[in-house]
Amino acid sequence: MSQVFSEETHRNLLARIPHCTGREVADWLRTVEEGPALCFEERLSWLRHEHNLAYGHAKAIIHEYDLRRAARRLL
Questions:
Q1: How far is CA 5 from CA 8, 10, 31, 54, 60, in A?
Q2: DSSP string across 6-74
Q3: Does the pTM of the predicted model rise above 0.85?
Q4: Which of 27, 29, 40, 46 is the Cys-Cys partner for 23 at CB 3.0 to 4.6 Å?
Q5: How far is CA 49 from CA 43, 45, 61, in A?
Q6: How far is the C-alpha of 62 from the C-alpha of 72, rounded, in Å?
Q7: What is the pLDDT of residue 74?
Q8: Which pLDDT belongs to residue 5?
Q9: Along the 75 residues of the chain, how does pLDDT read in single tens digits?
Q10: pLDDT at 1
Q11: Cα–Cα distance for residue pair 18/3, rounded to 1 Å
Q12: By the 8 A CB rule, do 25 and 14 touch?
């Protein structure tokens, strides 16, 4: 079962990603966009293993990607 992060925790994780990974969040979002079409948990595993990300950072990136994708659909 996956953890559910609060909105504040999500924002804090996103803010730390550039410092911890050396890449901006926008770069990670492009990586997810260009990566394989997988469900949430599979994408999480893919990011963690292919890019050596911590669980929280990978989850925050995928969650942010999904939020932005949903917002684009509303436009």
A1: 8, 6, 22, 14, 9
A2: -HHHHHHHHHHHHHHHSS-HHHHHHHHHHS----HHHHHHHHHHHH---HHHHHHHHHHHHHHHHHHHH
A3: yes
A4: 27
A5: 10, 6, 14
A6: 15
A7: 78
A8: 79
A9: 456 779 999 999 999 999 999 999 999 999 999 999 999 999 999 999 999 999 999 999 999 999 999 988 876
A10: 42
A11: 22
A12: yes
Nearest to 51 by CA among 66, 63, 62: 62
Cβ pair 31, 21 in contact under 8 A:
no
C-alpha distances in Å from residue 10, one per residue of 15, 21, 23: 9, 16, 17
Residue 29 neighbours by CB under 8 Å, 6+ apart: 61, 64, 65, 68
DSSP state of 1: -
Q: Give yes or no for a contact between 5 and 13, defined as CB atoms under 8 angstroms apart.
A: yes
